[in-house]
Amino acid sequence: MKVQKLTPAIGAELRDIDLRELTDKAARVQIYEALIEHQVIFITGREISPAIHLSLAQSLGEPQLPNPLYPRHPDSEHIMILRSGAGNPPDTGGWHTDMTYRQNPPFACLLIAREVPDCGGDTLWLSLCSAWDSLSSGVQSEIEELQAVHDMGDFRNNFTLHETDAGRLNEAHQQFGSAIHPMVKTHPVSGRRFLYINESFTQQIVGMRATESRRLLDYLFRHIEQPENQVRFRWSAGTLAIWDNQCTSHYATADYLPQSREMHRITVLDDARKTV
Ligand code: SIN
C-alpha cells in the first residue's frame, strides 16, 4: 500500500489497498503504524462491509458498545449509525476529542461514510501533537504540570432533551460523569507530547480562578485550531477514516441540510498493542 501524507501535521491516505489486505495480518500492522504516525488515516475507493469494518476495529482493540440512544447497525451491535438530514440535524459539531469526560476515553474510532451530500459534510481533524510542538517554550513550561476538568457541557443536551424529571436527569448526569486529565500528555506509542484539551469538554483548569482559567483555555483553543494543525477531509461514499482519539480532535461540519449524510462508526476502547 502507498501512504500519501495530506498535510505536514496530520492525516494520510492509504492508497492501492486491496480489500483482501484489510484482513491480512501484515497489512493491519502497516495500517496501525500509519495510524500512530499520521493520527488520522483514510482508505478510499473500497466497499468495506460491516463485517470487515468490525474485524478491522477488533484488530486495533476492544470495540465499545455504542450509546443506546443511537441506532445500531442490524448486522453488528458495535456499529453506531449517525444519520442526519432534514428534521434530524447533526449533533456532532464543535471541536472535540471523543468522551474525554470519561477517565479512560477511547483509543480510536473507525468511521465509514455510507451516504454523503453532493457537497459539504466534510470532517476536520487537528493534531494535538502539532499544537503542543508549536507552542512557545514559555507557554509550554507554564502549562505542562496543569490539569483540567472535562465534562460533557452542553453536549449532554442531545441526550437529555426529552427528559424533564429532575431525578432522572440527575441520574443521567451522574452516568455521564466528569474527569480530570493532565493538560499535557505523552503518547504511549509514538512518545510525542500533546496538548490534551478540547473546546467541547474541557471546562476548567484545576487550581485557577474561573476567569484565569477561561482566559488561558480560550488562548489555547485558538492556538490549537490554527489551520496548520488541521486536515479537512471531503468524504466519498465508502471511505473509511480511522483516527487516534488520544492525540486528535475532530469537527464534523453541519452545512449540508436539507441533504442527508449517513456515517457508520465503531469506537475502540484500548490500544491492544500499547506497551506502556
Ligand atoms: C463524530 O464526531 O464522531 C462524527 C464525525 C463525522 O460525522 O464526520
Integer-rounded radius of gyration: 19 Å
Coarse shape: globular
Number of self-contained structural domains: 2
Instruction: Tell me the series of helices and strands, N- to C-terminal.
Output: EEHEHEEEEHHEHHEEEEHEEEE
Average pLDDT works out at 92
Q: Work out the helicity level.
A: 10-25%
Strand order within the widest beta sheet: 1-2-3-14-6-16-5-4
Main sheet? 8 strands, mixed
Helical stretch count?
7
| CATH architectural label of the largest domain | 4-Layer Sandwich
Strand content: 25-35%
Distance linking N and C termini? 29 Å
CATH topology of the largest domain: Double-stranded beta-helix
In the CATH scheme, the class of the largest domain would be Alpha Beta
How many β strands by DSSP?
16
Give the low-confidence spans: none
Give the class from helix and strand content and strand pairing.
alpha+beta
Kindly describe this structure.
The protein is of the alpha+beta class and 276 residues long. The chain folds into two domains: 2-86 and 103-121 and 232-268, Clavaminate synthase-like (Double-stranded beta-helix, 4-Layer Sandwich); 128-224, Clavaminate synthase-like (Double-stranded beta-helix, 4-Layer Sandwich). 25% of the residues lie in helices and 28% in strands. The chain has helices at 25-38, 50-60, 128-133, 137-143, 157-160, 166-176, 210-224; strands at 2-5, 12-15, 40-43, 72-73, 76-84, 108-115, 123-127, 147-151, 178-182, 184-186, 193-195, 202-205, 230-233, 240-244, 248-252, 261-268. The strands form four sheets. The chain has an eight-stranded mixed beta sheet, covered by helices on one side. A three-stranded antiparallel beta sheet has the order 13-7-15. Strands 9-8-12 form a three-stranded antiparallel beta sheet. Strand 2 (12-15), helix 1 and strand 3 (40-43) form a beta-alpha-beta unit. The two termini are 29 Å apart. The relative contact order is 0.26. The mean pLDDT is 92. The protein binds succinic acid. Residues 82, 92, 111, 123, 250, 252, 263, 265 line the site of succinic acid.
